[in-house]
UniProtKB/TrEMBL annotation:
This is Cytochrome P450. GO terms for molecular function: cholest-4-en-3-one 26-monooxygenase activity; heme binding; iron ion binding; steroid hydroxylase activity. Keywords: Heme, Iron, Metal-binding, Monooxygenase, Oxidoreductase. InterPro entries: Cyt_P450, Cyt_P450_B, Cyt_P450_CS, Cyt_P450_sf. The keyword Transcription regulation does not apply. One of its GO terms (biological process) is cholesterol catabolic process. PROSITE patterns: CYTOCHROME_P450. Belongs to the cytochrome P450 family. It comes from Streptosporangium becharense. It comes from the Bacteria. The keyword Ion transport does not apply.
Amino acid sequence: MSMSMSLSVDEAGRALADPAAYADDARLHAALALLRREAPVHRVESPGYNPFWAITRHADVMEVERDNTLFVNAPRPLLTTAEFDAIRREQRATGRELRTLVHMDDPQHRVVRAIGADWFRPKAMRALEPRVRELARRYVDRMVEHGGACDFVTQIGVHYPLYVILSLLGLPESDFPRMLKLTQELFGGADEELRRGAGVQEQIATLMDFFAYFRALTESRRATPTDDLASAIANARVDGEPLSDVDTASYYVIIATAGHDTTSATIAGGLHALIDHPDQLDRLRDDPGLLPAAAEEMIRWVTPVKGFMRTATADTHIAGVPIAEGESVLLSYPSANRDEDVFADPFRFDVGRDPNRHLAFGFGVHFCLGAALARMETRAFFAELLPRLDSIELAGDPELSATTFVGGLKHLPIRYTLT
Ligand code: HEM
């Protein structure tokens, strides 16, 4: 943490718009800790980005999310480059905008969210659970097949959650490789190794590929409805009308993308944390009753979603700092989840942490639709792995992806003995 001594608050603020900062945990958390302490509502001006306010304290993030009239998601729900912001603006002006739930506000948001909501409730989760357990077993078996060593992220971690989400949507397993590639290109946006090409046009091209795939899916589910989430979306009515092509495809895109990289980052980061904290690994193995708390702590620890944005609809204040109408704020979840005012010893990984009021799933009307699924998947994986695990250690350096949006480990080389 000695870095924070030499870091200015302006430099710390700019780290929030720098994908590379997210690939370096120590650098990121030094910057966030400094902002929480000295400038918890801080205006960031960073080359290539439109200005924004960084919100780094847990209480302030909650306050913004709670008031979804004063702070709205449109038109700038995500931290993207000024170039990308401009393309979105042009698309909006010409009616070609791709909109997902996170781009919407009430009343539309409420109506559109309700279309998929039943598929994430406890009843649907119970129905899906045997399939999730089966997939967890399949991927732990695959670890065995890899012969005691693998890159956990690329060989296991990214596959399992995608299979789960494709199962919920009702898509065929044969589409798995294509979906995996597209999601990584989209969410790995700024990471050199993962992204498809150099620039914004390539990101848009990836998005268009997604939409083409899902447009075809909609047509087939309308012709022949089946009992799955894809059919619910394809055949939904809003005010008696079906969703437009763009809105239908947007729905699939948010489910497929949001449901995938987030959970895989959590599982890989959770495993890494257990390797780094053998006492916590032993504790969890001795007391499987801690699994729900441990999964929650993994989600806090990793915080795979680095931030969402809101835009003020009127002049206001956050923690006494004036925010003008039309200005945007970045809600820093990694920062909120290390807030010393809320978490006892926030940099300690504690599989029994209670209470654990983390904000990794956000808060309020946009609270993560898939939170129950993500929890179930994480628990199911470790419930299968831990009883079969004799030993585990790193076999190389773990690497984090460089992204300001969704990410975590992109490589986790491990060695293990597993039965
Ligand atoms: C929204 C985190 C897994 C679907 C969100 C938000 C966050 C988040 C922070 C925005 C909340 C806000 O604005 O207040 C996570 C994390 C996950 C995860 C950390 C895993 C550990 C999933 C899964 C799905 C999913 C498995 C399943 C499909 C969604 C959807 C939204 C959303 C549809 C948009 C909700 C809305 O705007 O109304 N998630 N998510 N997420 N998440 Fe997740």
